[in-house]
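User: Design a sequence. Structure:
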């Protein structure tokens, strides 16, 4: 298991697991709680769109900060700032100042954290073991996701939103501890061609952001409503999904590293498309909605390693991984903001949440085309390198 030998990646995966404990716990109740706090379904979608719109504006300041303090400190600061948003969730009561503060705090934390995290992971991971390292990461976070939503739902019902989201904030802050033992990655002041090298990443992330708007945000709202706005039932559905997904990522990661990325694309995106259609059709049936949510977790364990292996390897080969991810994340903000805005518009026009979920298929089709092109070229390049190697002659 050579993919375990990279101590830094192991620490990064530990950080990810702790952070995802927060995001799969209180973070997964973000939209659900806003609905119970008096925000309408279109309002929740527009609030999410606003977060990603503000992120797009704030991103212009990130590079200068990264050059000054380096990637390790930047991602540490981002992890800590991510914690600030959670206590603010409990203070929202309909449209107002508290919701505005939540949008701004969420945007600030996300803007610093996600590009720096992806750039850091891309820089320190191993290209030849990338699929398996990501598979392990996704499987570990899926296991954490079994306990976290159950605990968050129980805290919300038993002690109320302030304590529940305060605990979430504490867990997220603790996720920064592994960075005390990881190396720094300096950011170049100049990196000609870095943003040009990110065009493929931007395209992938625009499409992935559009998928997330329907497949994740609109679906979480639909699932919560299907379960009668019951926090415990919602947490249980998320836990079941995590249990199903815990076994998916490692096997596919091996497939990618073995040079079978094209096959992985068909499997991952085909599964994702099937789950999108299934989710759109079961929102009036609680038991089927729980099953569709569980299958979505398995699809994520297939999809994320397939997507992020391509993205991380392209970022590592680019002149500057951080610039690559700043540009790619800007694409993601555009995609998810547009997707959330379109979903809100569909609801205003009288369509159901099913239509908002189904809209994710446009992103699925786009990602399929882009990833298939990437893996086909990558596998062809690997074959060419093998053919160009001189044949070995036996010693006589």
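Assistant: Done.
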């Amino acid at each position: 298991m050579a993919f375990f030998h990279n101590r830094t990646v192991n620490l990064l995966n530990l950080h990810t697991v702790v952070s995802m404990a927060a995001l799969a716990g209180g973070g997964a109740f973000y939209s659900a709680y806003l609905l119970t706090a008096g925000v309408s379904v279109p309002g929740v979608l527009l609030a999410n769109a606003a977060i990603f719109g503000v992120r797009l504006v704030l991103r212009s300041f990130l590079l200068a900060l990264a050059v000054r303090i380096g990637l390790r400190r930047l991602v540490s600061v981002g992890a800590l700032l991510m914690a600030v948003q959670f206590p603010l969730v409990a203070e929202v009561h309909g449209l107002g100042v508290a919701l505005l503060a939540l949008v701004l705090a969420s945007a600030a934390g996300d803007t610093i954290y996600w590009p720096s995290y992806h750039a850091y992971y891309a820089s320190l991971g191993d290209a030849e073991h990338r699929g398996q390292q990501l598979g392990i990461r996704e499987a570990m976070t899926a296991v954490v996701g079994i306990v976290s939503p159950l605990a968050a739902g129980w805290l919300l019902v038993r002690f109320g939103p302030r304590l529940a989201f305060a605990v979430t904030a504490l867990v997220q802050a603790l996720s920064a501890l592994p960075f005390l033992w990881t190396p720094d990655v300096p950011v170049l002041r100049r990196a000609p061609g870095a943003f040009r090298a990110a065009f493929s990443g931007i395209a992938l992330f625009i499409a992935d952001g559009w998928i997330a708007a329907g497949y994740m945000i609109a679906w979480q709202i639909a699932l919560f409503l299907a379960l009668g706005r019951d926090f415990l039932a919602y947490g249980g559905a998320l836990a079941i999904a995590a249990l199903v997904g815990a076994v998916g990522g490692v096997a596919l990661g091996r497939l990618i590293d073995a040079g079978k990325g094209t096959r992985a694309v068909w499997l991952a995106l085909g599964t994702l498309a099937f789950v999108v259609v299934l989710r759109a059709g079961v929102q009036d049936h609680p038991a089927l909605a729980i099953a569709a949510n569980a299958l979505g977790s398995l699809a994520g364990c297939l999809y994320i390693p397939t997507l992020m292996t391509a993205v991380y390897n392209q970022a590592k080969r680019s002149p500057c991984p951080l610039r690559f991810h700043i540009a790619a994340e800007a694409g993601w903000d555009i995609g998810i903001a547009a997707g959330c805005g379109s979903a809100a518009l569909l609801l205003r026009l009288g369509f159901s949440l099913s239509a908002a979920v189904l809209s994710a298929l446009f992103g699925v089709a786009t990602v399929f085309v882009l990833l298939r092109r990437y893996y086909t070229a990558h596998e062809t390049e690997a074959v060419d390198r093998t053919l160009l190697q001189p044949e070995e002659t036996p010693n006589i």
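Residues 2-181+192-386 form a domain with the Growth Hormone; Chain: A; fold (CATH 1.20.1250.20). The CA atoms of residues 127 and 365 lie 26 Å apart.
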